[in-house]
């Protein structure tokens, strides 16, 4: 009968030397230097989560101290002490489990043996694992020995919860905190092991194993053993996903696509699919939060997410279509909804409500731009793509995308004859402007919905025929009148950031549509409240640092945006780009910068971009206010010093004037 001598990977590939220990370079460096210089402490404390190498490090340190070649950071591994410590039968090396031996009696027995000299090795080494489990009396019993042990005794303590260890014990130990393994380090180590084990694998499978290990190399090796058995020695992403029950990222990408398209039914369908596959909705929300965090990182720090991420293309595409503010709210909803699943009638309901809560934050403008568009005339349908597909199509073939986008024009969309808006008094001299006006007017703010032009405009016609059509519309009796169409009320409407418009952080592109509200035969243009149009606005080409101070005061901005504006100095404007100087580089906040850009665009009535240069802002609102305050302070101090009553007090009673207590009125 044969015996199976197979060792699990966690035991077979357990590090035997400092060089083979993965991910704990800071601890290895400190211990190696101490061993080289013979500056040996009598007690070490290793802290860290499970499976990061605390006990392994203790065994390597024990071999370094007892190796027959001498005290060295590179034990030979072949002498009696090294081999017996690896095998767990060295008489002068004792591993003590405090979880099952936590009483004062067990500790007293251990300390009684410590007084005797080692039988074989150079030192007696006691490794106490999970030392925080010891009772209070056991800690008290070991304090004296731990502080002044015999010269031949070394203590190595290991714990996953150092907060539970008394400070009197902590102060007697040299403490090292072992880090969790980063996923990249786990993947690299698994690749090395699997190549030597001659097991096939792919990068996605190892990445999923590294994520499931949660920083523990031992857990990663145990999961790898399980994956080898499950997949038949061919570790693939699909096999690991099925084994762990993790959710395919494609479900989450579809979820965000349906969310940005405003498709509630699509969200419910995805939840139903997850239920049929037996996936955990708690894990789904956890993975969704992780995906949203990657998208947010890509928006703020483009290029940080590498192409090695399986969802790299989807992350890039979604980062272009989800507003950063909405993204933060989606993330908050995902993490809070996960904790609320226990309060829901069931996880399915909790997940759907989380999706609908996110859907309520998607602006109607963004939904209409990303949802299918159906024309009312001639039974034709123009269907837009999902946000990700839309961006991918543009990236793959810009020329083809531009041609297909230009095909959707006001002339190809049938418009219902309900709210016609044309001025009867339009003269033939302004035909070009009038045609542009008619083609751009829509009845819904910021939406590609239904507008009104004659049916004949739905076909391709020459400019001459188009002019005749416009003239016919102008003379018809069915046309409503706009009494006073002036340059002021025909000014373009630039929406503020909180209306859901997507900006790229630097540029503010004015919307393609104008909004004309018709009430009692009169029209007016909508103007955002954040930066009201001013009749005495300073022209952009007349701007100076002093003029910038007046502009900032007139804008009356609040919060972070106002502070950035008050602490900034005007540099100049070039190619519709405003350059400001500001002291703190961290002030380049995406949402605040976008809001300031919008306010400047509304003030100067022209699309602008905004760039920050970092340095001392000497001509800012804040600097001017501080200079004025200093002048007032000096004036107040001078007035006090010249006051006859104050002078009399100083002369008669030797009173001292505390200048810091003087405040200008």
TrEMBL record:
Organism: Pelistega indica
Record PANTHER family: PROTEIN STICHEL-LIKE 2, REPLICATION FACTOR C / DNA POLYMERASE III GAMMA-TAU SUBUNIT
Catalytic activity as recorded in UniProt: DNA(n) + a 2'-deoxyribonucleoside 5'-triphosphate = DNA(n+1) + diphosphate
InterPro entries registered for this protein in UniProt: AAA+_ATPase, DNA_pol3_clamp-load_cplx_C, DNA_pol_III_gamma-3, DNA_pol_III_sug/sutau_N, DNA_pol_III_tau_dom-5, DNA_Rep/Repair_Clamp_Loader, HLD_clamp_pol_III_gamma_tau, P-loop_NTPase
GO cellular component, one term: DNA polymerase III complex
Name of the protein this chain belongs to: DNA polymerase III subunit gamma/tau
EC main group: transferase
Keyword Transferase: yes
One GO term (biological process): DNA-templated DNA replication
Keyword Nucleotidyltransferase carried by entry: yes
């Amino acid at each position: 009968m044969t015996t199976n001598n197979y060792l699990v990977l966690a035991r077979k590939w357990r590090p035997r030397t400092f060089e083979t220990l993965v991910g704990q370079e800071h601890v290895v460096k400190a211990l190696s230097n101490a061993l080289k210089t013979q500056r040996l402490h009598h007690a070490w404390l290793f802290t860290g989560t499970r499976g990061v190498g605390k006990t392994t490090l203790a065994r390597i340190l024990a071999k370094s101290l007892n190796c027959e070649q001498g005290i060295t950071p590179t034990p030979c591994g072949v002498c009696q002490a090294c081999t017996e410590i690896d095998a767990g039968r060295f008489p002068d090396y004792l591993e003590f489990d405090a979880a099952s031996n936590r009483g004062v009696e067990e500790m007293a027995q251990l300390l009684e043996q410590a007084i005797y000299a080692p039988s074989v090795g150079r030192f007696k080494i006691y490794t106490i694992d999970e030392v925080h489990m010891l009772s209070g009396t056991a800690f008290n019993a070991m304090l004296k020995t731990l502080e002044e042990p015999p010269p031949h005794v070394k203590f190595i303590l290991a714990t996953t919860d150092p907060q539970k260890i008394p400070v009197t014990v902590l102060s007697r130990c040299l403490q090292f905190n072992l880090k969790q393994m980063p996923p990249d380090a786990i993947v690299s180590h698994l690749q090395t092991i699997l190549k030597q084990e001659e097991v096939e694998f792919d990068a996605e499978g190892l990445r999923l194993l590294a994520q499931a290990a949660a920083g523990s190399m031992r857990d990663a090796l145990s999961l790898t053993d399980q994956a080898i058995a499950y997949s038949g020695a061919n570790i693939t992403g699909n096999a690991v996903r099925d084994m762990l029950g993790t959710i395919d990222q494609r479900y989450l990408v579809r979820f965000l696509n349906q969310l940005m398209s405003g498709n509630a039914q699509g969200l419910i369908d995805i939840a139903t699919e997850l239920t049929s596959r037996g996936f955990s909705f708690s894990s789904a929300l956890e993975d969704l939060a992780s995906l949203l965090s990657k998208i947010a990182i890509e928006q703020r720090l483009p290029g940080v997410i590498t192409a090695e991420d399986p969802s790299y293309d989807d992350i890039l595409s979604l980062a272009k279509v989800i507003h950063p503010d909405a993204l933060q709210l989606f993330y908050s909803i995902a993490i809070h909804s996960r904790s609320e699943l226990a309060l829901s009638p069931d996880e399915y309901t909790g997940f759907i409500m989380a999706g609908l809560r996110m859907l309520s934050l998607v602006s109607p403008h963004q939904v209409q731009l990303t949802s299918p568009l159906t024309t009312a005339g001639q039974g034709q349908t123009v269907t837009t793509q999902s946000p990700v597909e839309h961006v991918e199509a543009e990236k793959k073939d810009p020329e083809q995308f531009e041609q297909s986008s230009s095909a959707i024009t006001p002339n190809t969309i049938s418009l219902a004859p309900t709210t016609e808006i044309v001025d009867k008094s339009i003269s033939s001299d302004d035909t070009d402007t009038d045609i542009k006006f008619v083609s751009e007017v829509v009845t819904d703010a910021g939406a590609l919905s239904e507008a009104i032009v004659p049916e004949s405009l739905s076909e391709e016609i020459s400019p001459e025929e188009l002019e005749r059509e416009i003239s016919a519309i102008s003379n018809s009796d069915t046309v409503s009148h706009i009494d006073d169409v002036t340059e002021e009320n025909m000014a373009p409407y630039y929406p503020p950031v909180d209306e859901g418009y997507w900006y790229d952080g630097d540029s503010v592109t004015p919307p393609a549509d104008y909004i004309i509200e018709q009430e009692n035969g009169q029209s007016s243009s909508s103007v955002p409240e954040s930066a009201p149009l001013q009749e005495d606005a300073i022209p952009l080409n007349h701007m100076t640092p002093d003029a910038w101070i007046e502009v900032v005061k007139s804008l009356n901005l609040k919060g972070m945006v106002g502070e950035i504006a008050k602490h900034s100095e005007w540099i100049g404007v070039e190619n519709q780009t405003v350059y400001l100087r500001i002291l703190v580089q961290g002030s380049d906040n995406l949402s605040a910068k976008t809001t300031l850009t919008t306010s400047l665009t509304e003030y100067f009535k022209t699309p602008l971009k905004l760039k920050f240069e970092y340095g001392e802002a000497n001509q800012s609102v804040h600097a001017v206010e501080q200079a004025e305050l200093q002048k007032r302070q000096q004036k107040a101090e001078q007035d006090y010093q010249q006051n006859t009553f104050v002078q009399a007090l100083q002369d008669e009673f030797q009173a001292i004037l505390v200048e810091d207590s003087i405040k200008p009125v």
